[in-house]
């Protein structure tokens, strides 16, 4: 995945709306992940109250920018907008990826993996 283009959104969610935001994000996420250039998307809840991070990987920046300006993306954003009170977007190019032992399916012999 060394050539991936990564987008990270920091989303500030209105108080008391986190659970509903998570539900809606899960329901509509296919509008992003079904795009042929999307490599996957992750939603993470921060320890900071009401803050979420969405990370989305793309085959390259031009394909992401094409999606970003599409009607499909506009509809997706409109469905999440009622929950949002602020946020920001950061983009980056992934230059390297080192898979961990758990990802590769084999735990390192010096470490015990709790299950």
Automatic annotation (TrEMBL):
InterPro entries: ABM_dom, Dimeric_a/b-barrel. GO terms for molecular function: monooxygenase activity. It holds the Pfam family ABM. Residues 5-92 form the ABM domain. It comes from the Bacteria. Transmembrane segments: none annotated. Keywords: Monooxygenase, Oxidoreductase. This is Antibiotic biosynthesis monooxygenase. It comes from Amycolatopsis rifamycinica. The lineage of its organism: Bacteria, Bacillati, Actinomycetota, Actinomycetes, Pseudonocardiales.
């Amino acid at each position: 995945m060394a050539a991936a283009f990564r987008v990270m959104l920091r989303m500030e969610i209105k108080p008391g709306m986190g659970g509903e935001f998570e539900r809606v994000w899960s329901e509509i996420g296919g509008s992003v992940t079904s795009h042929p250039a999307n490599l996957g998307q992750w939603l993470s809840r921060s320890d900071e109250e009401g803050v979420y991070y969405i990370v989305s990987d793309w085959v390259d920046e031009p394909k992401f920018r094409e999606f970003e300006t599409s009607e499909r993306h506009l509809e997706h954003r409109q469905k999440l907008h009622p929950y949002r009170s602020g946020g920001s977007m950061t983009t980056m190019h992934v230059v390297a990826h080192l898979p961990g032992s758990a990802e590769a399916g084999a735990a390192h012999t010096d470490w015990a993996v709790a299950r």
